[in-house]
Amino acid sequence: MSGMTLYDKLWNSHLVKDLDDGTSLIYIDLHFLHEVTSPQAFEGLRLAGRKPWRADANMATPDHNVPTTTDERSRGVEGIIDPVSKIQVKSLDSNCDEFGISEFHIDDPRHGIVHVIGPEQGRTLPGMTIVCGDSHTSTHGALGALAHGIGTSEVEHVLATQCLVQKKAKNMLIQVNGQLSPHVTAKDVVLAIIGHIGTAGGTGYTIEFGGEAIRSLSVEGRMTVCNMAIEAGARAGIVAVDEKTIEYVKGRPFAPTGELWEQAAAAWQDLVSDEDAVFDKVVELEAADIVPQVSWGTSPEMVAPVTGNVPDPANAANESKRNNYLQALKYMGLEAGTPIQSIMLDRVFIGSCTNSRIEDLRAAAAVVKGRKVAANIKEALVVPGSGLVKVQAEQEGLDRIFTEAGLQWREPGCSMCLAMNADQLGEGEHCASTSNRNFEGRQGFGGRTHLVSPAMAAAAAVHGHFVDIRDLELH
Amino acid sequence: MKKFTELDGLVMPLDRANVDTDYIIPKQFLKSIKRTGFGKNLFDEARYLDKGLPDADCSQRPLNPDFVMNQPRYQGASILLARDNFGCGSSREHAPWALDDYGFRCVIAPSFADIFFNNCVKNGILLIVLEEDIVNELFKETFAQEGYRLAVDLPSQCITKPDGSTIAFDIEGSRKNILLNGLDDISLTLKNESDIVQFEADWQNKAPWLFSQKRA
Predict the structure, then answer these.
(1) Strands (E), B16-105
(2) Which value, in Å, is the radius of gyration of the alpha carbons in chain B?
(3) Distance (Å, rounded) from C-alpha A429 to C-alpha A284?
(4) What is the pTM of this model?
(5) Predicted-complex ipTM score
(6) A347 phi, psi to nearest 5 deg
(7) Residue B212 pLDDT greater than 90, yes or no
(8) What is the reported pLDDT for B216?
(9) Under DSSP, is residue B84 helix (H, G, I), strand (E, B) or coil?
C-alpha cells in the first residue's frame, strides 16, 4: 500500500463520514465571506430560521465592489457612490452583525481582498480546510491548506452545518524542476503551467505544486501560483509545508502562540506528501525553460513568451482550438504573428488577489523608480491588497515611487481585476494586468486584458508596450 | 429545490468552447442580493449590442441579431447545447441562476467545469456529458432542422432524438438522486448532526489551535 499525498492527508483528517452515494461529508475549519456571494446565503439562513453552526469559524470582508479612490473611501461605507454597490456592502455589514460573524469593515485598517488578508492575519493556517464563495480561494493552499471556491448555496450550507458534501478529487502533481532564471516570477511559472496543461487540464484534480522551483518561491510567490490553480480547472492547489511556511505564519495576529504554537508547528511537519505517495497524474516542467509570459487572448491558457508572437490559429492543435483562437484574436483586435513586444497598451493594473502583496509592489516599484509612465498610457493603477500592505508600502516609500512615476496609488479592493467598481477598461482598450482572468469583458465591456507579472506590468507602463523585463536595468 | 425528472425541449446551440461564467452572467449583475431576475442578462454581452447595467429595462435594449439566442427559431429553448469546458471561470452561482431564470433546465456538452457543475445540481439543472462526436452530431442536426427538440429522461438516463433514436448518458448516482428528488441539502446534512458534533470534538482534541483563534 502506498503512502498518502498531502491532499489525501488533508481530506482524511477532515472526513466526517463517507455517505451512501459516493460523496463525503467534509468538515470546514474556516469560511471566508465577501459581499457578492453571501447575501442570498444569509437570506436562506434567515428564511429557514437557522443560525451559523460556528460563528467564530467565519470571517468576512467587502472587497469586490468597494471603490478604491481615497476620497470615496474616506467616508467609509457612506462614501460608496454606486447605490447598488452600497446596498451590497451594507447587506454584508448587517448580515454579519445579525449572525455574529467577524467582519473587517470597509474602514478597518486591516481590511482588504479576502485572499490577501486571510494569510496576512494568520487566520489561514496549514492543515485547514478553507472555503469561500470565490474561486480564487485556492490561494490559501500555498500554506498547506485545502482551500477552494464554492457557490452561494454551498456558502449557506457551510454556515448552517460547518460542512460540505464533496466528491474527492484525483491527485495531480505539477513539478517544476531546477532553478528559475532571474526576473522570472511565480506569475510566469503559473501562466506557463496553464499554457501547458490548458484551462481544463486540472479539472477533477487537486493540484500539488512541487519541485525545486516551487520550493524556491517565497510564501507570497506560492500564493500567486495556487491562486491560479482554478484557471487550470483545478478547484484547489496546494504547496507542502516547509520552514518558509512556518516562518510566514509565526507571530501573525491570529496564529497560535505559546504551547499551542509548539503543538501546531509540530503537527504541520507532516503536511507533505509521503515519499511513496502515488499521484494519478504527474506533469513536469523545467524552470530553465520558463521566460516572462504575456497572455494574448481571452483565456489564461492563451499565453506566449514575451519574446514570442501572437500565434497563428492555423497552427492550433484542433478545429475547436482554432475557432477559439480566431474568436480571441477578433475580440482582442490582434493579428496572428504580431510580436508580443509590439502590442501597445492603454492602461495598466497592478493589483488583485494574485499579485498585490508587498513583494509584488516592491517588484513593480523597482522597475518604475526614476522613470515615467509612457504618454500613451491613459491610466496606471496600483491597488495594494490590504490596508496593512498599503501601510507597509508607504513606510518603504513605494507609494511615492509610483506617484512620482505617474501611477495612481489606490485603496485596497478587487478593483480592476473584475471591474465591479468604477475601475474599468474602456471598450477596445488594452491593459497590462497582474490579475488572473482575461475573459471577454472581464475588466470592462470590450476591454482587452493581458495577464502579466507585476514587474512586466510596471515595465509596460513605462514603455507603453510590452518589453522583456530581463533587458531592463533595474534599481 | 426544483426537481428534474424529464424534459421535452427546444434545443439552442451555443457553438463556442470554453464559455466562462463571465460570458454567462457579467459581473455588474452580481450586485443583486436576490436569487432571481438574472434571466434577462444571460449571455448579456453577446446578446445585446449595448453595455448592460443592473436594473436597466432590457426590453428597450438593442439586440444583437447575429447572436443565436435572438433568432426566432430558438425562442423558448429549454435545452442548451454547448462545447467543451462550459462554465469555466468563477464560482458564481449566478451563472446557473441566470440559465434557469431564462428557462434552460438542461445543458448538454462534452465537458463542464467543476464548480459550475456542483452549482447546477444545487439548482435542479441537469448537466449531461456526452462524447465529442455525439455532441458534434447534435450540433449539425440542430442547425439543420428548425424546431429541433430533444426528450430527456433522467430516471432512464436517456435522450430521445426527433427521429426516435436514443442516446444513453451517464450521471453520478448522488447527483441523479438530488435532481430527481429536489432534495434540500442542508436538511439532509443535518441528519448527520451527531456525527458532525462527534467529529468536531475529536478534531478539537487533535488540533486545539483551530478552535481558539481569537475574535477580530
Answers:
(1) 79-81
(2) 20
(3) 36
(4) 0.94
(5) 0.93
(6) -135, 160
(7) no
(8) 46
(9) coil
